[in-house]
């Protein structure tokens, strides 16, 4: 895991890593709810949007992805 952002309510968090994946996790169970594939390099930054409807991720290859939660 190279980056992390926690939803303000604390119910979910999102992570990115060297495995090139963006993962949405359930905070209570610790299990992934969704996995986003698309980056061709390490994920360096993830952020949950203020309205908590989207996730933005940035990879080392320079790609920026916007994901629906």
The overall pLDDT, averaged over residues, is 96
Give the helix/strand class. mainly beta
H/E element sequence: EEEEEEE
The number of helices is 0
End-to-end CA span: 19 Å
Low-confidence stretches: none
Strand order of the largest sheet: 1-2-3-4
Helix content: under 10%
What does the overall shape look like? globular
Determine Rg (CA atoms, Å): 11 Å
Number of strands: 7
Assembly state of the chains shown: single chain
- Beta-strand residue percentage: over 45%
The biggest sheet, with number of strands, parallel, antiparallel or mixed sense and barrel status, is: 4 strands, antiparallel
Describe the structure.
By secondary structure, the protein is mostly beta strands. The protein is 0% helix and 55% strand. The chain has no helices and 7 strands. It has strands at 3-6, 12-16, 21-26, 32-37, 43-48, 54-59, 64-68. The strands form 2 sheets. A 4-stranded antiparallel β-sheet has the order 1-2-3-4, with no helix packed on it. Strands 5-6-7 form a 3-stranded antiparallel β-sheet, with no helix packed on it. The two termini are 19 Å apart. The model has no long low-confidence stretch (mean pLDDT 96).
């Amino acid at each position: 895991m190279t980056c992390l952002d926690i939803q303000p309510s604390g119910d979910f968090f999102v992570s990115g890593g060297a495995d090139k994946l963006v993962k949405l996790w359930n905070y209570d169970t610790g299990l992934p709810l969704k996995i986003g594939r698309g980056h061709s390099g390490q994920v360096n930054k993830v952020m949950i949007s203020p309205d908590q409807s989207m996730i933005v991720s940035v990879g080392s290859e320079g790609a920026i992805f916007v994901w629906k939660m």
